[in-house]
Structure formats: structure tokens, C-alpha cells
Amino acid sequence: MKVSIEELLKREKSKYKVCCIIALDAERLNNIKKDPTYINESETPEEKIIIQSMKRFIEGKVIYGYMEDEESAKK
């Protein structure tokens, strides 16, 4: 499956943030996959984890937020 940048940017305007969010989700999915009790529920088992994360992001299944740093929180 090809994922277009336009689809990704509909959920978040910054390409940089999109990349970071998807990378963190892919890392999380990869760690889950390493668990011996893991069962692959992907539509296509051979699908790469990064593609799974992109699909999840487009579908709104990736929950993310932003932490305030101490400087901006004090203002």
C-alpha cells in the first residue's frame, strides 16, 4: 500500500511532527511484536511496521500529545 503525504498532513500540518509521531508508534509496535505472546492482527502479515503505523495515523488510531517544557509552563 502506498501512503501519500497529503493523507498524513490532513491529521497534522507539520511533516516533521508526522514523521516523529509515526516513528514512535512504529517503535512501539516493534516492541510489542518482540513479545513472545504477540499475535499478528495485521491485514497482511508481511506488511512493514512503518506502513502499519502510517495507516494507524491516518485512521486516527495513534494517540499523541505534546508536553510543555518548564519555561513555557511558567509563563
Automatic annotation (TrEMBL):
One of its GO terms (cellular component) is DNA-directed RNA polymerase complex. One of its GO terms (biological process) is DNA-templated transcription. Keywords: DNA-directed RNA polymerase, Transcription. The keyword Flavoprotein does not apply. InterPro entries: RPB6/omega-like_sf (IPR036161). GO terms for molecular function: DNA binding; DNA-directed RNA polymerase activity. This is DNA-directed RNA polymerase. It comes from candidate division WOR-3 bacterium.
